[in-house]
């Protein structure tokens, strides 16, 4: 998380609570998005998924697009965490 390395003086040579706080907020957002995907979107997609050979419904395509957007946003947030870790 950066708390130990910051307290040991690793990184920039001083403790920066602002960057560490931002990093923890971003990690919390990643956890929230991951929980939303796994607990809400995946079960919804399983429930409304089309049977083999049939065309997907508009609701299914909308939920699939929503899941892709959230997954992509989570990936971007992970890159932000890595960048903040490098800065620390």
Q: SS-based structural class?
A: mainly alpha
Largest sheet: none
Q: What percentage of residues falls in helices of 4 or more residues?
A: over 70%
Shape call: rod-shaped
Rg over CA atoms, rounded to whole Å, is 19 Å
Transmembrane segments: 20-39, 69-87
Keywords: Membrane, Transmembrane, Transmembrane helix
Organism: Candidatus Iainarchaeum sp
Protein name: Copper resistance protein D domain-containing protein
Structure in words:
The protein is mainly α. The protein has one domain. Helices cover 76% and strands 0% of the residues. The protein is built from three helices and no strands. Helix 2 packs antiparallel against helix 3. The model has no long low-confidence stretch (mean pLDDT 86).
Please describe the topology of this protein.
Blueprint: H1 3-7, H2 17-48, H3 58-87
Helix pairs in contact: 2-3
Keywords summarizing the entry:
single chain, 88 residues, mainly alpha, 3 helices, rod-shaped, membrane, Copper resistance protein D domain-containing protein, transmembrane helix
